[in-house]
Write a structure and sequence with these properties.
single chain; Methane Monooxygenase Hydroxylase, Chain G, domain 1; five-stranded antiparallel beta sheet; 20 strands; IQ_motif_EF-hand-BS; nucleotide-binding
Length: about 800
Amino acid sequence: RALSFTVNCTIGQQVCGDSMATSTATKARREGEKVWCPDPRNVWQLGSIVEDDGDSLFVLTPDDNEEHKFNVSQTHPFDPSHSMLLPNVSDMDNLHEAPLLDLLRRRYMEDLIYTFTGDILISINPYKNIPLLYNFPDIGSLSKQENPTPHVYVTADGAYRALQSTGKCQSILVSGESGAGKTEAANRFGKFIKINYDRDGKICGASTSHFLLEKSRIVGCSENERNYHIFYQICSGLTDAERGTIVLLCFKELVDAMDVMGISADLKHNIFTLVASVLHLGNLNVLFHGVVVGSGSVAEICLSGVDAGKSRNGLAKAMYSALFDWLVDRINVATAEMTGALPMNDVGASRFIGILDIFGFEILAVNSFEQLCINYTNEMLQQQFNQHVFVYEQDVYVEEGIDWSKLSFQDNIPCLELIEKRPLGILILLDEQALMGRRASDDNFIQKLHQTHEKHANYIRPRFGNEDFIIKHYAGQVTYKVAGFLDKNNDSLHNDLLNLTNSSTMAFLRGLFASSTPPGDQKLKRASMTKMTGTMTVGRKFREQMTELMQQLNTTTPAFVRCVKPNNVRFPQGWNAELILNQLIYLGVMETVRIRRSGFPVRRTFNEFYLKYKLLYNVYAAKTKAHPTTVVDKDKCEVVFMRDSQLRLLDAAVRKVRVEAAITVQAYVRRFLQRKQYLRVRAAIIQVQANVRMFVARTKFLRLRHRITSFNACVRRWLARRRYLRMKRAAICIQAGERGRRQATIASQAMIRRSLARRKFLREKKMATRLCAFGRMIIARRAYLKTKRQIVLVQSLVRRYLQRKQYVLLYYAFNSK
């Protein structure tokens, strides 16, 4: 059904043999052609070749309309397919990141946010509602089209049909960084949703698994980021009088969803009480002491303010995480009950479609433990992606009977081993530090990493400082700051806090921490051994979750949806080419393009191939007298596979043949034009002779006609002059009237403007007079009030003096008696 096409060497020899003779023509042909060249703002742009200098090209760029010099290796040739609005990138010839970016940009600007890259769907977040984007009466008809329209429904329908036809479980892997449009609501955790189907293809149950909840967001948010929605809903949904009893007034939608899940009023009260408790913990003043359990003894020590704050934050994160885990389990139970899920031992219950919503690769300004876990997840998914893409591509070649060599690809197994392999993986060494108790520190951890992995191919020790380490991921180098690694990896609470939760008067809270009961006094002797063997760190728990997830994914046939964030400001129609290119690299899209280029990316049906290149066989077979040595069964072989280099060689040969044919056609056309010109001159000479003979006969007629014409001209001139004079007088009258009307209009306008100006002047004068009067009144009133106060003061002093004098007289009179 396919045939790998190898270009006949005679074509290459013929082209190379004529290269010296046609070098000037080739150079002239290249000048004026389009080419992709680097651009500092848009990464790539399409320009026109002005001059070909061998190793360099002078390109005219449309943005600044200036010439720029580029090395040939910096540019990429333009193909006519690059200007087409293709729904599938695989249909593009001469693949490269430049036309890929341009295709995605053009589709995005026309609200075509979905694009296929083979069987991988690229989705670009539009940051707006697109009308009728999901309005399809028959979703199944989309995937039945010969060239399906790129849409997430096509991917979902393809997974469902594959589940029905093959009986093998399917999975849809949705990945992309925060803000790329994976979900409508922002969430900071990964989840794997399994939708179970029965034998008839009907949904019979669902379950959700989550991992790597971003608990650090509970106690602190990054700049320009929000916390979890429930905190804002709690604060805005309660009145001041009802905050103490946690009675909800708002977020009806959340409460309705809880009702659907079968959560009772008491449970809802407990849930919101715990959420409010987490908020209150942020305002808690902690005591700077704690209890350390040793081998057979208990010691009370003083804690620093930082350590006490960490303990308080750890309790808040543990409460929120335990509540989150409980809610997920409760939802899984509710969905199983509502759908009537089959028992686990039923064969039909094992058929499922899994949807993985995972965070994309992250390279931030400051990368910490969370970024290491996220990038570790993406490394595992990239490994699974490589296996799927390469195996699938090579299976196609085997199925189509192509003589192929094994495709090479960038294997990221060494990077995975650096992170997770026992006994010296980064996460393993981090867990070892967790077992050292108070002796552990981030400095010891980074020193251990440098000593162990300094010579590893995927590990780089920074030249300066001793707080960072660098890992070479498949998407690029990431510098991780080791500060805080140990604290973030420690998922356990102090025994005092565990005792606090287990002694709570709320049964719901005690149930959440029932499995975390601290060791009692009778178990102190075994505390050290238990600590060494049973400590569950975040890294260990996450590795186990990832191992279980990958085991499930390896049993499925995956489909990939790569979500891309077009800009950082979340603005509709905003396009940041550099940001998008980095995401395409991180998501493995560019790697997919590279895989396609390393194989046979150009695919033509035999009919298309024959129509385009049939002239080469007639020309070169006649010159070389060559005949086919391989007979192809047309019933089995329907597709021709080629590499880009072969396509360019064939296109060059076609252009050469067409140039030669054009020269021949031009010769025939020039001969035809010369003969046509000769016949035209001959006919003209014959016509001149006839005209000379006719001239003599016409002379007398022309003299008579001239006299008649002169008379008629005089009559028409007199009539025309009379009509002209009449029209002139009328025009003069009209112009005089118009000038009078215009002067009257100008005079009227002048009077009106003068009147308006006078009114404005009088109004302003009146206002100014009032303001002046008011000002004078204020001054006079202030002077009056001041004088009045002074007079009143003088009067009071006089009256006091008189009263005192009278009082003295009366006093002496009274005493004298």
